Amino acid sequence: MPSFQSIKRTHTCGELTLKYLDQAVILNGWVQSYRNLGGLLFLDIRDRYGLTQVVLNPAIVAKDLFDLAIKVRNEFVVAVAGKVQKRPKGTENKNLATGEIEIAVSDFHILAEAKTPPFEIEDQTNASEVLRLEYRYLDLRRKPLQDKIRIRHQAARLVREYLSGQSFYEIETPLLIRSTPEGARDYVVPSRVQKGKFYALPQSPQLLKQILMISGFDRYFQLARCLRDEDLRADRQPEHTQIDIEMSFVTREDIFAMCEGMMAHIFKQILNVEIVTPFPQFEYAEAINRWGIDKPDLRFGMEIIDLSELVKECGFKVFSDNVDRGGVVKGICFKKGATYSRKQIDDLTTLATNLGAGGLAYILRQREGDKSPLTKFIGENLQDEICRRLKAEPGDAIFIISGKKSKTELILGQLRLHLGKAHNLMDAKRWEFLWITRFPLFEYNENEKRLEAMHNIVSNPIEEDLHYLNDADKSVLPISNSEHPLRKIRAEQYDLILNGIELASGSIRINCRELQEKVLNILGISDARAEDMFGFFLRALEYGAPPHGGIAAGFDRIIALMTGADSIREVMAFPKTTSAASLMDGAPSDIDPEQLRELGLKLDDNL
């Protein structure tokens, strides 16, 4: 074989069209398919740019080259030289950019042979995900994955382009840091130089980006790698990428405007979709009240309606006694659902009871009359009033839950999503962005009987709720009581939601040590322990920390939504399984005993 320099490609496999007619070209690529038809040998040659058909005619090509070409199989890497010619009439492929031409081969070389792949390198494959992850280098040759990686690259470039145009600096933060508990478990790295001590891999650059604000860099961003040792699912990986952003001397609205502009820029440039800004905003309490979830999908209706006042004196104890105890009765109206069968009702009831409901009441507003077990308990007049309140028309179905407020809203929220998915109510072509604001600063952990930060330990309480911090010292209510002053504090915390998926989360930060320590104390972290864990950060707050805030957007989730991927694994080059394993290279793996000795570590024989 001649030196590669002489057979190096002159064009890509997606480039050649009729305008290159009669030009001498060289292509390099993988064999997608081969066909021997009546003595003519046709090969489809593929690279990441596209596919080109080449033809070897034994009357033109030297016999030794033709014999060599006959040996090729799928995924061989080849070099072909020849002239661009028009395909014979009737053989054009209008689905290919190169579909009107082919290469009449004059020279042919095999650059690398390939074993038979364990699955076909086709756009659609029946291969299991386990097999595709084991042979990820083959899976990544498929066009759907290559397209997703291309869009990921384009989006990363656009993020940098947009934020740089907004006077942001891209600043890298270290991957070896001190362990600062932020919710999930840290991945830890032992130090060889300082035996017995450990680094942590960052769950996020949270404290470091705040220190950058204290350092005077008032606009920072980074496509940050974040590592968390947590249980995985479709939208989680042990390592992921976030668009990390922090800004000084700003309000929440400044951060919203910047983030909305960035999203609009990305969607316009990649999908040619016009995103309408500003995005609607809903406080957390309103979102839970209307949709039963803090990340509502607004592509369909079916809002939750409170019926408590309407039924509190109805005499039906399941409703009235519950309202007397401080509970609620709420319902949703499912359009065109009156045709539900007994089995469908039973299945929906099972779903509700599995979520914690005592039962599921329903009214099927059929054209020949309502069908409901409620009628004999509440009467037709009240039943009609419930239907009016929920704006139910003939053909609609109403589903009602009675219980504690938080549980009732949660269950109806999940029923709403179930019905939306089951009946394809979400328009895949709609992009419904919204902000959820003013989350509770604290939430009560029933298992551990203590308060936790709902989102972030550095989120600033909203100004009008600061008095609750002082009120808490005088309160005699147990912390488990939702009326306790600390449970009423709302945070300058916000989430960006797209089509029912949380894309980004952020907050206006605490910028004084005294308040930060008070929040940590409420969370059960003493001053001494806070100094041990966060002392470097608390000291930084004493040296003129500007008002600041930020947001972190899940880059992998954004790309998954934009490409219609079912999992973020599809938009990562080398993802892990749900057990955090890399099937391609066998990570995590055993470590050489000598390395352990160098690190001063010994494995527990009982592991």
Helices, by number, come to 18
Distance between the ends: 54 Å
Q: Kindly report the spatial arrangement of strands forming the biggest sheet.
A: 6-9-10-22-21-20-17-11
**The top level CATH class name of the domain at 300-422:** Alpha Beta
Strand content: 15-25%
Biggest sheet, open or closed, and with what strands and sense? 8 strands, mixed
* Helix residue percentage: 25-40%
Unreliably modeled segments: none
Mean pLDDT across all residues, rounded? 94
Description of the molecule:
The protein is α+β, with helices and mostly antiparallel strands. Among the domains are: 4-112, OB fold (Dihydrolipoamide Acetyltransferase, E2P), CATH 2.40.50.140; 300-422, GAD-like domain (Gyrase A, domain 2), CATH 3.30.1360.30. It has helices spanning 4-7, 63-70, 129-134, 136-139, 143-165, 206-214, 252-271, 284-291, 308-311, 317-324, 342-354, 375-389, 405-422, 467-474, 513-522, 527-540, 555-563, 593-599, and strands spanning 24-37, 40-47, 50-56, 77-86, 101-112, 169-170, 188-190, 198-200, 219-227, 239-248, 281-283, 305-306, 328-334, 361-366, 369-371, 397-403, 433-437, 442-445, 450-453, 493-498, 501-508, 548-554. The strands form five sheets. An eight-stranded mixed sheet has the order 6-9-10-22-21-20-17-11, with helices on both faces. It has a five-stranded mixed β-barrel with strand order 1-2-3-5-4. The longest helix is centred in the first third of the chain and has 23 residues, at 143-165. It is globular.
